[in-house]
């Protein structure tokens, strides 16, 4: 698919059908995650593939918000491995705090990459922020680690709930040379 079209067609999906996402496709999606860029190439992630329906339901209930009507067919939960990011505030170690949570950004890169790979395979997705305590309990993730995001995967139920999707105009969010918001 044309890349710009792919970017625009990837969207948060609210209702998924029962159709299963194949293991072959899940592996391709994981490959996109694996090859994502990360701060100093720390690759501070671990990907948990969840297909068990009951576990998916429980994980969905940890969403900070999310008016989901039907659960995705599979979930890839992305664990941030604290051991791999030794800097303050989960930053990459550079001897000083950059003030930027670059490990979390790396997790975001992997999730976005996987969501685009999914869309390229015709698979719909949703990116969700889970409540930490609960999701870590369900996924048996260590206390010191985090699950900043998970990606729900499946095929959209057609003719069901859809949210209006809009974006600010390019001229509202760009400037030349230095910052201006006029
Ligand atoms: C880092 C991040 C966290 C998000 N967390 C949630 C969430 O917890 N619940 C939810 O319903 N949507 C969540 N979303 C989805 C956004 O609300 C959605 O991407 C945004 O409204 C734009 O809509 P679109 O994905 O259809 O383009 C998250 C998206 C990102 C990038």
Strand content: 5-15%
- For the largest sheet, list the strands in their spatial order: 1-2-4-3
Count of β-strands = 4
What is the subunit arrangement here?
single chain
Helix and strand element order? HHEHEHEHEH
What composes the largest sheet?
4 strands, antiparallel
Low-confidence stretches: none
Could you give the distance between the termini? Answer: 35 Å
Tell me roughly what share of residues is in helical segments.
25-40%
Q: Give the helix tally.
A: 6
Task: Describe the 3D structure.
The N and C termini lie far apart (35 Å). By secondary structure, the protein is an alpha+beta fold. The chain is built from 6 helices and 4 strands; from the N terminus they run H-H-E-H-E-H-E-H-E-H. The radius of gyration is 17 Å and the shape is globular. The model has no long low-confidence stretch (mean pLDDT 92). The protein has a 4-stranded antiparallel sheet, sandwiched between helices. The site of flavin mononucleotide (FMN) has 12 residues, from strand 3.
Task: Write a short abstract of this structure.
The chain has 182 residues and is of the alpha+beta class.
Describe the SSE topology.
Layout: H1 3-9, H2 23-34, E1 45-50, H3 53-60, E2 74-80, H4 102-120, E3 124-128, H5 132-139, E4 146-154, H6 170-173
Antiparallel strand pairs: 1-2, 2-4, 3-4
Helix pairs in contact: 2-4
The structure holds flavin mononucleotide.
